[in-house]
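Consider the following assembly input.
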Amino acid sequence: MADIARLAGVSTSTVSRALSHSPLVNQETRDRILDLARSLNYTINIGAQNLRLQQNRTVAVVIPIEQATRQQLSDPFFLSMLGSLADALSAQGFDILVSRVDADEVDAAAAPFDGGRAIGVILIGQGRHHDQLNKMAARGVPFVVWGAQLPQQLYTTVGGDNVTGGRLATERLLAQGRRRIAFFGDTSLPEVEQRYRGYVEALAAHGLSPDPQLHVASSFLPESGGQAVAELARRGVAYDALFASSDLLAMKSIHAMREQGKDIPADVAVVGYDDIELSSYFHPPLTTVAQPRDVAARALVDALLVLVDGRSAPSVQLPTELIVRASA
Amino acid sequence: MADIARLAGVSTSTVSRALSHSPLVNQETRDRILDLARSLNYTINIGAQNLRLQQNRTVAVVIPIEQATRQQLSDPFFLSMLGSLADALSAQGFDILVSRVDADEVDAAAAPFDGGRAIGVILIGQGRHHDQLNKMAARGVPFVVWGAQLPQQLYTTVGGDNVTGGRLATERLLAQGRRRIAFFGDTSLPEVEQRYRGYVEALAAHGLSPDPQLHVASSFLPESGGQAVAELARRGVAYDALFASSDLLAMKSIHAMREQGKDIPADVAVVGYDDIELSSYFHPPLTTVAQPRDVAARALVDALLVLVDGRSAPSVQLPTELIVRASA
DNA sequence: CTGAAAGCGCTAACAC
DNA sequence: GTGTTAGCGCTTTCAG
């Protein structure tokens, strides 16, 4: 900026004003300065500007990962949520700082805020440490999380209606005459737990009670699907349907079942969760519960901005929809 | 920091030194200050620190998208590359600023650097505007791109060996006795063009010349696979194999062909490209060309750091590998 | 319409 | 071992 000032024969104040299109500065001077800036590929140093203005147009997007299992950022659902968030945030002129934290230390997600790097944090996924998030909220970190709404929650969540989602999925399978419905999913995660609740509700509505033998607490590991299918085989339990807590898990499980010679959906009908893009191209095309990613992303951003504004933002539960395809 | 200084009864200099674990400051004072900082959830304001230190630990990761088609950030390959980059950059202590630019204005990728937000830029995908990238390089923007190496290139690329990849894929199909091999891909993209070259080379080695009727310049649109398959049908061309320039495209195409009653691989053998995670779970499991994402991510980061250091970084071409599965 | 000066939060000589 | 001071790049009163 000093360079430009010198070249234009004005002070840095004038350059600053010109660059911010202040009407105070002479039209001609302004044009000269803007031209100069353009030709030098000059851009305002945002760090310094932020410092001076005490403002910030950066939002941190944080993804909790299972450190223990060294899981890669790989579930297409999370990734596409990131894409939708990128859209929503860019549209509002925010920069996006992406980071990952250990799912067992989600409170580390506050770092970009504490360090003044971001005005707030969006967490894609809630992990199992509700208490850590509550503490973060208590000490005033503005953040919202994509996840389930829990009792005594001090923070704002945006999430799908997991109970209904689980119920819809299970009802679909029941409607097809299936009675031995396996459930794959780690119920220590609140979202999965709620989907499981929907599953139990649907069973109950048909006078059935869940068979614990049919529940495999498969985690989000690379090999999870295969392992879960193998586990059922080891237990020697019969099943004619599967409700998997994510599409990725459903696809891996279908692959494993196919290797056991099972036909999908004839032998085992399958419903997944998330409606990732590839679900419709999978074979058989996957029946699944759709979560509205774009709406969710906008809701997350809106809620965060409300929080940053010092107001309180209510949690949002978005409707889920059963997408019926060939797998069930 | 001033608050802590006051509470600790010292000057901000001492606080600054204590926080950076300087041995200059008295052990006892230091512990008192660190405790205080912890209890206040204080973290250094990195913006201010960067300003003062004239340093920066942020790298911009930029993804070119086809604005015209409003394409979402959806190809799992790009997303998982982002994941690998996040790993590689975090490991080196860098923050990641993610943004998307219009593929027709890739030079906008320089913005985070120009604005002092990032020390350099990693572009995931090269787009079709080689010239814009060359100009960016010429004016000293430190950046590396995941993409193809081109003649007269002033910038650094890291990419797979696309020609070999294309050759391997095509050879596999030829080895299975296929002779009418369709190629789906937008050859205006350098990487795809090179894969096409490998395809042509492999054909030539078998005394075949490429039939232009078999080439569909399908873009990376959501519906691309279906459209490409429909286009072949419209042209009335017979084919017994398909080489798709991405796994996503391959999967969509397989889905479309299956709807036409074709059996994969009996009627049409298919090879994809990228080896995304779901390829092995697809039905049939996809034969594809693997690109080493983790190695690539590390190479991209390493090259960028060399550039930031003011040295010049050679382009890197990583080996590709044919992963044989059931689809071909 | 423009410039001088102060200060955002931080660090590093330099002094003591 | 600690404090004083200046300054990173920017904006904005306040004076002209």
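Chain B has twelve helices and twelve strands. Ask yourself how this observation constrains the way the partners meet.
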